[in-house]
Design brief:
Distance between the termini: 30 Å
Helix content: over 70%
Shape: globular
Number of helices: 9
Number of strands: 0
Structural class: mainly alpha
Length: about 190
């Protein structure tokens, strides 16, 4: 009986490692991809909304400021409400805000939705990293850190190419819609 209990605990620990790793990598990929893919679409968005290039910069600035505000708050939120709950909330907020960005009908709406998106994105990295390090014992944390190389190297390289393709072949709105399947899958897997 004790051997079965140990086996069940090991399996639970392994499934937690896998779940946290998959959800965190998907969330980071989505967040990093978004930061690079949107920049390619800015000139097209500006033309579509008939605003100056300096006004269209507010789309990126709003996102980055919101991101910076929510990064420090996420640690407190994770401790107060639980890492899993905050990470899943952050993924849901980021994904829903991405959908809202895609349907925005004015620059003001798009900027407001980017602030919301930045709130979700700001909570992803710190809470996800804390969960990742809690799931892996100290001896395995170097391997856990290696997991981060996937989103941090692939997404910045893929973003401009995918953004250019989407803006050229579809619409600038698709640079936001591309987050929807990634976010939905990450949320479902994490739940």
């Amino acid at each position: 009986m004790p051997a079965a209990r140990v086996t069940a605990e090991v399996q639970a620990r392994m499934s937690q490692k896998i779940a946290v790793s998959v959800v965190f990598v998907a969330a980071m990929f989505m967040s990093i991809l978004d930061a690079t893919i949107v920049n390619v679409a800015l000139p097209t968005i500006g033309r579509d909304f008939s605003v100056s290039p300096t006004a269209v910069d507010s789309i990126s600035i709003a996102f980055l400021v919101s991101l910076a505000v929510f990064i420090p708050a996420s640690g407190w939120l994770g401790d107060r409400f639980g890492g899993k709950r905050i990470l899943l909330t952050a993924i849901a907020v980021f994904t829903a805000a991405s959908a809202l960005c895609g349907v925005a009908s004015s620059l003001g709406e798009l900027v407001a939705f980017r602030v919301l998106q930045g709130a979700g994105g700001g909570m992803l990295a710190p809470v996800g990293m804390a969960m990742l390090y809690r799931a892996f014992p100290p001896a395995e944390r170097i391997r856990a850190s290696a997991i981060l190389t996937v989103p941090t190297t692939l997404a910045p390289a893929l973003g401009p190419v995918l953004g250019g393709l989407l803006v050229t072949e579809a619409s600038w709105r698709w640079v936001f819609y591309v987050n929807l399947p990634i976010g939905a899958l990450a949320f479902a897997f994490g739940a």
